[in-house]
Design goal:
275 residues; alpha/beta; Rossmann fold; 5-stranded mixed sheet; 7 strands; 11% strand
Length: 275
């Protein structure tokens, strides 16, 4: 899930630089969904309003902001992310999981564009829906990376998870501590696994976990006054959404998404300068 921590190229990137990006391809869950589930449900979910035009937020999500900064068009046909997706083949209610999303892409593209940026950000729903070990979840993520690499993807941005035990919907529940523990285990396992990615792929790591920690310990730095509850639950009916980290019990506001895009854009620039 999805932000203001420093994003740096993986230390195992073999000194490759990220080439100028000419397109985005996105795989993941609701944090990157720009209308997949909305269209699939005939506009029923997420309901608009209060959600923004099929996004699980009150405005554009981070990959849209990032596309704008890169001066590329994020074609909806290139965004496979779906709200509720897990890392496996299919999630609840038949939502296409990460591996299904990637397979849809590789089936249609025998040769990936080497100048495109491929975004993989998933895993939160696995744990929120009951997974208690990162073994299979991380394996799925690495399989997705491998599948993209095999067809020629060279620039892959991979996000870790924020503390799932400290979301507005989980922080005061009995699941808070177990979710926090599995989040930590997941991020450690993912980081270790990413070190083994081959030299032909440039991995850029999105440290969402550190981002949420920074936002919660120093909210004013990001213009937030509330980082513990969802804006939709505010008694004033969320008149100042930009002061909230969360839009609802799980998803961030578009203000948070915008900040994420700025950090992601900076990370790509770091990658370009590292050659």
């Amino acid at each position: 899930m999805v932000m203001f921590a420093t994003l740096l190229p993986s230390s195992d990137s073999k000194n490759q630089a990220v080439s100028p990006i000419n397109q985005l391809y996105v795989f993941g869950d609701s944090l990157s969904d720009t209308g997949t589930i909305y269209n699939a449900t005939g506009g029923a979910y997420p309901p608009s309003p209060p959600y923004f035009q099929g996004r699980y937020s009150n405005g554009p999500v981070w990959v849209e902001h990032l596309a704008s900064k890169l001066a590329v068009t994020l074609d909806r046909a290139h965004n496979f992310a779906a709200g509720g997706a897990t890392t496996g083949a299919n999630g609840s209610y038949g939502v296409p999981g990460l591996l299904t999303q990637v397979k849809s892409f590789t089936t249609a593209h025998s040769q990936a564009d080497p100048q495109a940026l491929y975004v993989i950000w998933a895993g939160a729903n696995d744990y929120l829906q009951g997974a208690t070990s990162p073994t299979i979840v991380v394996k799925n993520l690495m399989q997705a990376i491998e599948s993209l690499s095999k067809v020629g993807a060279q620039n892959i941005l991979v996000g870790n998870l924020p503390d799932l035990g400290q979301l507005p919907s989980t922080r005061n529940t009995s699941n808070s501590s177990p979710l926090s523990a599995v989040t930590q285990a997941h991020n450690l396992s993912l980081a270790q696994s990413l070190k083994g990615v081959g030299a032909k792929v440039k991995i850029i790591s999105l440290d969402a976990n550190t981002l949420y920690q920074e936002a919660e310990t120093n909210p004013a730095k990001f213009g937030f006054t509330n980082v513990t509850t969802g804006c939709l639950s505010a008694p004033d009916r969320c008149r100042q959404p930009d002061t909230f980290l969360f839009w609802d019990g799980i998803h961030p506001t578009t203000a948070a998404h915008r900040a994420l895009s700025e950090i992601a854009f900076s990370a790509l620039q770091v990658g370009q300068r590292s050659s």
